[in-house]
Amino acid sequence: MKYLSIGLRALLTLAFVGAGFAKLAGAEMMVATYDAIGVGQWFRYVTGIIEVGGAALLWLPRRQVLAASVLGGTMFGAVLAHVFILGAAQGIPAVVLGLICTVLIYLHRDQINETLGRSA
């Protein structure tokens, strides 16, 4: 389980750091995507910061559930944007990344009570 977690976190880190920096750098595709969504370019910056920050959080001790939840939430939003605005077929990577986040939450489920501030 330890090595599965490391592998999934590495995969998520590559995906989210790449996507996050593309958003922050103003890659043409990202700018066009956020124009199409219609929420404004400020939201592209917010999403980029969340993605890069969430990827970093994956590697802090006992923060994997929090990180995977935040990143999974962004993927949920991405799936909704694709289904209702951008075109559902393009949303498949967001679905896959969201599922990987879900697996990571399951692997680190012992952190859930701690993350929610509950005693076990």
Name a few traits of the molecule:
6 helices; 78% helix; mainly alpha; 0% strand; 120 residues
Mean pLDDT: 95
> Helical content, roughly?
over 70%
Q: Helix-strand pattern, N to C?
A: HHHHHH
Low-pLDDT runs: none
Distance between the termini: 22 Å
> In what range is the share of β-strand residues?
under 5%
Q: How many DSSP helices?
A: 6
What general form does the structure show? elongated
Count of all domains: 1
**Structural classification:** mainly alpha
Oligomer: single chain
Largest pleated sheet: none
Total strands: 0
Radius of gyration: 15 Å
Protein name: DoxX family protein
Subcellular location: Membrane
Transmembrane segments: 42-60, 65-85, 91-108
Membrane topology: Multi-pass membrane protein
Overview in brief:
The protein has 120 residues and is mostly helical. Helix content is 78%, strand content 0%.
